Amino acid sequence: MAAPSLASTGINVESELKSAQSATVSTSASLQPSGRVHDILNVSLPCTELGSLWDINLSFSGNVQKVTPHDPAFLEVMKDDTSSPYINGHGALLAPALCHPHIHIDKAYLLSHPKYAHLQIEKGSFDEAMELTSKAKSSFEHDDLLERGLRVIDESVQAGVTSMRAFVEVDPIVGLKCIEAGKSLKKKADLRCHVQLCVFAQLPLFSGDDGGKEIRRLVEEATNPTYSAGVLGSTPYVEDDREKMKKNVEWTIDLALEKDLHLDFHLDYNLDPNTEPLVWHVIDILKAKTWTTRTKKTIVLGHCTRLSLFKDNEWKRLKEEIADLPISFVGLPTSDLFMMRTETGARGTLPVPHLIKDYGFNAAISINNIGNAFTPQGSCDPLSIANLGVGVYQAGTKRDADILYECISTRARNAIGLSTEAGSSSANVLSLKPEKAADMLLFSKYNPNWRTRRTISEAVYLYDGPDKRTVFKGGLLRYVRRISYNNPQITSSVASSQPPQTDHLNAAQQTNNFPSELLDPQLEQLDLESIMSRNEALASKSSWKKTPMQLPAPSPNFPVSDIRNEAKGKQSMGPPPPPQHIDEPYVEFLHKPVESPDAHIEPLSPGRAPDLTRLPPQKQAELVLQQLRDLGERQKARDGKYRSVADELRKGQAQAQAQAQKKGGHVDMGGQ
C-alpha cells in the first residue's frame, strides 16, 4: 500500500494532510495545475531538413536542454520508464508558442455581451467606434471586465498563446477599473499565460475641457508598481492639433523613462498622403531623451498605416533614423482593413513582411481588438492572422510563411521585450535551441498521415482552427486538444467525462507498480476545477458564455486512492473496469494517452486551501497528492529524477531483504 512505502522515506501522509489544511494558497502555489514533461519525442521541427524527426529533452527549469535526431528505440525504452513523463508527437510539428503583441483585453466582446448588445455598429467609422466604446466604458464593472477578459485569455491559451501585451484603458470615464481588472486577470492567468499590462490612454492627454489634467493624473497613478503594469501607451493622433500630438509623445516618453516602462504608441493611423507622419517626431524625442542609455526597455509603434504609403527612399531613411533604437512595428490587419478607408475605397495596413525582408526592421502582427466597434470580426488565434497575411501581403513563399509565423511568435515576443535576447535578430528565429524557454506548440496528428502539419508553411497555409493543438509553457503542459472516442457503446456524455482509466499501450502488462502520476490529465482537470470556485459564481450569473465542465469519475487505479483509504481507515476500492477503445491516441503520456475531457481551460482563480474535513474524499485525495507532487519535484531537483510509488516499494523491499539477510533469515517478497 502507498502509505507504508511513503513512510519508509519519511513521508507522513497524516502530517501532510494537516499541513494542507492550514496552507494558504496563492495563484502560483500548489493548487495550480502541474504538468511537467521531460521529453517530447518524434516531432518535426522548424528550420530542419524536411522529413527529419527529432527528440526534445527539457530541463527541470523548463528550458530546452537537448535536441537530438529521433531514435525509435529510445521511444520504446521510454514506454517502460516510470520516472520520465514524455509525449510522443507522432511526427507532427513542434514550433514556438504564440504571442499577442497588441490586444485590448478590456473592450473585447462588447458587441456580443448582453450588457452592451444595444451598442451596435451602424456606420463603421473610427468616430463611431470611439463613441460606442465610450458609452460602453461608462458601464464597465469589475465582474464584466473579468468575464470578457477571461474569455480572451482562455481562448488565446487554447490557440497556443503563452504571452500577450494587454492594453487596459485609464481615463476619467473608467477611472482605474480596467487596470484593477487587468491586475486580477494577470494573476489568474499566471502559469498559463504571461499577461504584460499596458496602461493605455486612448483619450487625449492634452485636449478637452481641462486640457487633459485629470487623465494625466490617472495615468500616473496607474503606473504605480502596485498595479503590475509593465508598459505605458498613448494615442497621439486623437489630440485636437499637431502641437498637442507632439506634447502627448513627449509627456508619455518622459513618464515611461521615469517609471522604467516599455513604451507603446498607437501612431499615424491614417491614409492621407498630405499628413506628415508623426513617427519622425517620436524618433527625434527618443534620441533627445537618450533612451538607449537610460533604459533597456523596448518601443512598439502600432498601426502606422500612413507608412504604407512610403516609397523605397522613405523606408531607407526611416531605417537609418531609427539606428540602434529598440523600435518594433506591429501591424494590425484585421482592424486596419475594417477601419482604414479612403474616398476611393482604398484600404491599407502596414506591409509587415516587406519591412522585415527588404529593410531589416523588426515587426509583428496582432489581432488588436475582437468583437467591438473597432474590429467586430476575428478570433483570439494569432495563426488566423498569419493565414490572412498570406493574401493581404501576397506572401506565399516558404520564407514568407516562416516570417508570418515569426510575427505571431518569436518576433512578437521580441517586440514587447519578453525575449531573453530582446532586440537581437537571433531572438526572431523559429529553431528550438538548448537553453531556450520551452514555450511550445505541438500540432495534431491526423489520419491519413499526410494531413499532419509537419512544416511552418503547412501550419500557416492550412489554417483549421485552434482545437487540435497541445500547448506548453515553461515545459509545463498547459492545454491538451480534444480526443474523440469511436466506441459505439460509449455515449457522448460518457466520452467527454470519463476518459480511459488504463494503459492502452501496454494494457496486458498493467500492474500496480504505477509510474509517477504527476502529469495525469485527470488530475490536471481536477486541479483546475478545485481552484476556480470564485469564478463559478460569476459564470453562473451569465447566460452569455456558459461552458460547464464535466469532471471525470474518480479513477479506481489512482495511487492516491490507496493513500486516501489508508489515511481514513477505509477499504481499498475495487479493480479498474476493462479499458475502453479510443481512436488513435494523439500523444502517449505516462504510459497512457493524453486526453482532456471536453477539453477547454477554465479560468484560474486564487483561493485558500479549504478545510479538509469539509471536503469530499475525492477532493481530500487531490490535496494529499499535490503534497506528494511537491515532494516529487524536490526529489527531482535533488536527484535528477522522480521516484514513483513503485520505486519506493522496491526500495523498501531491498531494505527488508538486506535486514533479513543480516539476521540470517529470508523475506518472501512475492506477495507485494
Automatic annotation (TrEMBL):
<feature type="region of interest" description="Disordered">
    <location>
        <begin position="539"/>
        <end position="581"/>
    </location>
</feature>
<feature type="compositionally biased region" description="Low complexity">
    <location>
        <begin position="652"/>
        <end position="662"/>
    </location>
</feature>
<dbReference type="GO" id="GO:0016814">
    <property type="term" value="F:hydrolase activity, acting on carbon-nitrogen (but not peptide) bonds, in cyclic amidines"/>
</dbReference>
<dbReference type="InterPro" id="IPR032466">
    <property type="entry name" value="Metal_Hydrolase"/>
</dbReference>
<feature type="compositionally biased region" description="Basic and acidic residues">
    <location>
        <begin position="630"/>
        <end position="651"/>
    </location>
</feature>
<protein>
    <submittedName>
        <fullName>Metallo-dependent hydrolase</fullName>
    </submittedName>
</protein>
<dbReference type="InterPro" id="IPR052349">
    <property type="entry name" value="Metallo-hydrolase_Enzymes"/>
</dbReference>
<feature type="region of interest" description="Disordered">
    <location>
        <begin position="630"/>
        <end position="672"/>
    </location>
</feature>
<keyword id="KW-0378">Hydrolase</keyword>
